[in-house]
Amino acid sequence: MSTTYPSGPPCAQRGGHGHPGLIHRFLDRLPFEADDPIVTLQEGSTPLVLAERVSEIVGAEVYLKIEGANPTGSFKDRGMCCAVTQAKKEGAKAVICASTGNTAASAAAYASRAGLKPAVIVPEGKIATGKLAQALMHGARVIALRGNFDVALQLVRELVAEHPIALVNSVNPYRIEGQKTAAFELVEELGSLDALCIPVGNAGNITAYWKGFQEAGHSPMMFGFQAAGAAPLVNGAPVEKPETVASAIRIGNPARWEEAMTAMTTSNGRIAAVTDEQILDAYRFLAANEGVFCEPASAASVAGLMVHGAGDAGRVACVLTGHGLKDPQTALEQAGGVVPCEPELAAVESAVLG
Ligand SMILES: *Cc1c(COP(=O)(O)O)cnc(C)c1O
């Protein structure tokens, strides 16, 4: 049974104190007006941290854009505040997405905040525990599909053609608009940069960054990285059964394929693959040496940089797309074990110092 509360007057969704959400911060560069029903959890304005150890290894100045610091723990919040604001503006009552996890968590959070009903379709058994917990807690109807992400996206596209439900996957142009603001932040903070390293799944984010850089008058080399078992852009053909430990980029047929390739070719960048082993090496390295815990898919950006090099880039930013706590299972499998100990000083001493 749930508790009922007395209802008071509605309050404005300005987001409260502290930094404004990204719609308010970049209002002049987004397709919204100040009097739109803006839905925000004060996303964006994420930390940009110098990675000294990674910098030493690759011989360039390397920064980490910590997108796991967004309200639901991934960059998806940047696009979702815009997609859900637009859905609310258009009078939608429900939103839906196919998701490898983070889009589901973000859609559920923003929809609940906006008073819309969220439904999410995820590949059964292939979504990290934290993301599933979030989607459920935010009140989403979570549908576990016996099929992969690509099949899920195809099905939701067919569903929304028949029903008045807003589709909030990155095929939605408002998602790209919101996500491009991360490029604005990088340009504002660094002045300029030579290369961006980014994991590529459905290819919405690399498309968004490139749009943002172009609008800001910059053209860093776009280095996109895919997991070797889910690397359609590298192979030049869809992958029917994508497999990787980096569940957020376990996608075989990216929706924004052409745009991603355009970003990489026109920026003199590249698309390359990294193995699960290389991804997990970078994942552990960042946590143990930089104090930054990201999820496996995010580590693909740093893995790619460490394996394939920075080229002639002097200043590089790596996008760490999601927080490490999203996927505690993989973390526990990859980390060392705990030390059992009797409650006696001598035992504690040898456990701590041993
Ligand atoms: C969604 C996601 C990606 C991939 O982004 P695309 O826009 O699908 O290319 C990478 N990492 C994480 C953590 C994600 O949630």
Automatic annotation (TrEMBL):
This is Threonine synthase. Belongs to the threonine synthase family. It catalyses: O-phospho-L-homoserine + H2O = L-threonine + phosphate. GO terms for biological process: isoleucine biosynthetic process; L-serine catabolic process; L-threonine catabolic process; threonine biosynthetic process. The keyword Amino-acid biosynthesis applies. GO terms for molecular function: L-serine ammonia-lyase activity; pyridoxal phosphate binding; threonine deaminase activity; threonine synthase activity. Pyridoxal 5'-phosphate binds at residues 102, 201-205, 321. Its EC number is 4.2.3.1. The lineage of its organism: Bacteria, Bacillati, Actinomycetota, Thermoleophilia, Solirubrobacterales. Its cofactor is pyridoxal 5'-phosphate. InterPro entries: Ser/Thr_Dehydratase, Ser/Thr_deHydtase_PyrdxlP-BS, Thr_synthase-like, Thr_Synthase_bac/arc, TrpB-like_PALP, TrpB-like_PALP_sf. It comes from Paraconexibacter algicola. The modification N6-(pyridoxal phosphate)lysine is found at residue 76. It comes from the Bacteria. Catalyzes the gamma-elimination of phosphate from L-phosphohomoserine and the beta-addition of water to produce L-threonine. Keywords: Amino-acid biosynthesis, Lyase, Pyridoxal phosphate, Threonine biosynthesis. Residues 39-322 form the Tryptophan synthase beta chain-like PALP domain. Pathway: Amino-acid biosynthesis; L-threonine biosynthesis; L-threonine from L-aspartate: step 5/5.
